[in-house]
## 1
Amino acid sequence: MMTTKEIIQRILKELPFFLPALKVGRIEVEKKISDQVFDLAFKIKTKDRQEWLLLCEIKRLLQPRIAREISTRFKERIADLNGVYPVLITTFIGERTREVLKKEGVGYLDLAGNCFLEFNNVYIEKIVDKNPLVDKRKLRTIFKPVSSRILRVLLEESKKGWKILELSRIAKVSLGQTSNVCRWLIDEEYIKKEQGAYYLTEPGKLLDEWCRNYTYAQNKIFTYYSFEQNLGKLIEKVVGISEDKDLEYALTLLSGASIIAPFIRGISSLQMYVTDSERLSEWVSLLDLRPVESGSNISMYIPYDEGVFDKTQKADDINIVSNIQLYIDLCNYPARGREQAEFLRRERIKF
């Protein structure tokens, strides 16, 4: 992560390129006004020859909750000053943080080129969605297998308030890790804390973010050919074997969606999760399957994490993964997966 000094150095070098429509005057570091000190200040002259002083605060990281809190304090600091405009500067400002700052009436600049200034007769906005300086370590941690169990629990019961101990127990995640994930979710304003319980505030946006950081291909995939060509009869065999041999499974992707939220016609292959490699071998033997590299009609997945089986649902005595797991599996599935995912979302998830 860049230091504040490094951010200032980059801004000083590139500021004229960020604001080509404005005449940028003198730039001052640690500008003192009365008894207040601002990280950066510079004068600009508008096309109608008015001068404004842009007072800037530098932040190494700017998440939505932090941005909202800083904006409130920043506006209070400059309330008695005339001809000034508050600007927050950081390395990169994501979409949700940009929305917060615009609503708060605070400008922003970042090193990726995002820019928003709105005052008097000035309106400048530039959007750069991709962060060339991104450090995805935190995101990767949040969406890692064990941490993602917490997301699954929250999203499956999106209106429930969760105490941290209960959330930790249900998700089967340590208390410390649960606390860390919740802290990140609060900073990103996906959840809020009221009277000691955590509530989702943006379930849809959290689900979207998870989809961007997940693919069904994270699971171990094994493809086979079954001599049973009828999908319905093949599923019946799976159900029967599961009951007779006490083998756990859960349908997913198009075959799972075809049962609980049918949208795409002509589904002819089966996709299912099994618990581990030992059980996989049992399934292959009992279903009399042949491994193939192409032309398969049944795919089995050893899950990237056992949490995949959490909240498994039943329909017509068939085990299917939870709606949330089914949705994120479908999102990046090539064979019309996105279409089926969005239908499932409208019909079953509803956020």
Note: The two ends are 34 Å apart (CA to CA).
## 2
Amino acid sequence: MSVFQTHEGRVAVVTGAGRGIGQAIAVDLGARGATVVAVDLNSPGETVALLADKGHTALGLTADVSNPEQTAAVGEEIAHRFGRADILVNNAGIFPFLDIDELDYDTWRRVLAVNLDSQFLMVKAVLPTMKKGGWGRIVNLTSNSIVTNVAGISHYMASKMGNIGFSRGLANDLAPFGITVNAVGPTLTITPGSQQVHPQEALEAAAQAQAIKRNGLPEDLTGTIAFLTSDDAAFVTGQTVMADGGYAR
């Protein structure tokens, strides 16, 4: 599929970019002309190779985005290499299933740290150069799980509601600097991670609950992300877009 060079000259940072949704977003932004910084807890080498094979400029950084020191180092490396970050897509996340009786404090904190704290930390890491540029796009991934009746994800739902609140509040803070902030909520999406966690019957049930009765793919999110990180979305901020096949209708 051909895409327009809507992001040419932009530096785009994508977390959780080693595989799945993050990898698809990173590859798409690269195809649209952005220089891509792929950040992942594990090596994002596969994503960087996919971009390089297509002639796109990319940098891979390995970091735990829930760690303040490591995210600060990511921001410093981006500033050193490229002088700025124009786009930040906070995609990193984890989703262990545990009923409240099984959920211990350490797991609660880990889910909030990876799913919510990381978004705050990455914003802090790239914001100084983004503000200097007078233009920026931040997209925080949330989830349509906030409107489901699925048991065993109270910790995950808390983190994902937090993503929305953070995005709305941050939109107010950053509007004067030409920076927009929005949240995007996918449905249960077919990725290596989700297939390890969810049995086939859960995937089928999720698809049947949607208006579009198939499971989401990582590529189903890239157009929405591309729009929200483009010049065309200059008047869209503080919003939550559910790109979920009509589940949250």
Note: Strands lie at 11-15, 35-40, 58-62, 87-90, 136-141, 179-186, 240-243.
## 3
Amino acid sequence: MGLDPYCLGAVVYHPKVESIWEQFGGWFAEQDFPLAVSYFDDYERQVDALVEGGIDTAWNTNLAYVCALERTNGALHALAMRDTDLGWTSKIVVRTDSAAETLEDLRGKRVGFGDADSPQAHILPVHALRAQGFDPAVEFLASRMDRDLGKHGDTGGAELAQLARVRAGELEGSVASSVTLDAVERLGDNADLRVVWTSPEFPHCNFSVLDSSQADHDRFKELLLAMDASDPKLCEPMELEYVNQWIEAQEHGYGDLIAAVKAGPIVVGDVEVAA
């Protein structure tokens, strides 16, 4: 038998997080599956709680999942994820009037990166560039912005601040995730930006659980996958969580991030004062 209620961890990277889980919690309770949500200020504390058995599942970033996987010697797996967690990429963008067309054109130029613990704006793009034989710590005048450490880039604040610096001419280019750039495009604010490099695809968040846990993970997953975005009680929190449909986790896609973490700390660039 599982714990009653089912204990879930979520990091409050934005005030909306508590509203999302309050609404989801009400729906789960109606399905006779009550949730107890623990909120954390950063992913390190959430991973601690998961590994120590303080929560049944953690709504983790890809980096939090990989760190938990490493700490448990692989005795952990991903349960479910959003449909929108698949197919992420990191991109380097420049202004449309920039002379830069390729990575080679950015050698010796100032290029921005996001928070040191952001998989999409720092860790994975650096890893991918090095795999291509292009070390950004050497080839660029890298400029990193640590704005929301502990949140693993969830806020997108550093990426947006670095894009503003590109527009202002302070940087020749900057790294941003495909998701951030899609959001910029929806706002009609991308006409002055152009992509010159794209990383391999990678997945983002997932619900992580310990293999040894006796909690009722199957029932939790069953209910997640049954959620319908057209349900009046679910449409708002699902929209706020950027999910159209919950799906089975696809763990094979985390290989690049696992390799990057195993290779050791990835930190490039002089740190700029966070805006």
Note: Residues 16-30 form the longest helix (15 residues).
